Amino acid sequence: MKDTVYGEGLNFNIPWFERPVVYDIRTRPVNLQTLTGSKDLQMVTIGVRVLHRPDPNQLVWLYRHLGKNYDERILPSLMNECAKACVARYNANELLTKRDEVSASISTELSARARGFNVVLEDVAITHLSFSPEYAKAVEAKQVAQQDAARAKYIVLGAIQEKKTIITKARGEAESTELIGTAVKRNPGFMKLRRIDAAKDIADIVAGSGNKIYLNADSLLLNLLGDADDKFEKTVAHGDRGWFKNK
User: Fold this and answer.
1) With the CA atoms of 224, 227, 228 and 232 taken in that order, what torsion angle do they form, in degrees rounded to the nearest 10?
2) What is the CB neighbour count within 10 angstroms for residue 133?
3) Greatest CA span in the chain, whole angstroms?
4) What is the pLDDT of residues 68-119, one digit of tens each?
5) Most buried pick, 23, 164, 177, 241, via CB within 10 A?
6) Distance (Å, rounded) from C-alpha 127 to C-alpha 166?
7) Cβ distance 123 to 51 under 8 Å?
8) 119 CB contacts (<8 Å, ≥6 apart)?
9) Which residues, in sequence order, are CB contacts of 55 under 8 Å at separation 6+?
């Protein structure tokens, strides 16, 4: 076998004494998959796609030692060894969060090992990464627990805000009641104004109703021209709170 490598184009050989061995030196892909363990002893199935080609200057060595199917002889074993060595340096969660770093580590080691066999690797990429069903269920349960904890936290915060709202509303109603009582004591005309507003609302309701009303005007607060105001003023003058009297 000659040590000369002929390139593409027109070449001559001696019939019956010489025959050409043709190598395809274009880049070809190969997909490899292996089962390995992580640093925390979790079983991981990892798939790697490798773009490779033979070294054009070392085709004679490749044919003598490995033959034309060199990729089938060396790449699977090299990939298994390099992938297991690299994955064992990372925990299971780091294989997901540091995927680029893991891929670069596998590419560096695999390229270095392949150069010893005169094979050039142009690209190495992780195409598949899966864990055992038990680990997947544990991760899912952890995520559900974290979501439940966050939901409970928001429920507690909502209850605290609701409590503050109720307290603020109660304080506002108490202050409003105190202010109304003070206004009534100082100026009885305040209650007249409130009675007029209430009478307007009642009159609008009665006017819009199709039913007939046979009730006393005093009971509906509609007697604005009678002696209701005089009675109220006498009540306030004698120190009685009228409608605000505690029973």
Assistant:
1) 130
2) 8
3) 140
4) 888 888 888 888 888 888 888 888 888 888 888 888 999 899 999 998 898 9
5) 23
6) 57
7) yes
8) 52, 53, 54, 55, 62, 70, 71, 74, 75
9) 62, 118, 119, 120
DSSP H or E run through 131: strand 119-131
pLDDT in tens, 148-170: 777 778 888 888 888 888 888 88
pTM above 0.70, yes or no: no
Q: What is the CA radius of gyration of the chain?
A: 46
pLDDT tens column, 207-236: 676 666 555 555 555 555 555 555 555 554
Q: Which two tokens stand for residue 121?
A: 């690797």
Instruction: State the residue for tokens 């864990």.
Output: 131
Alpha carbon distance 223, 229 (integer Å): 9
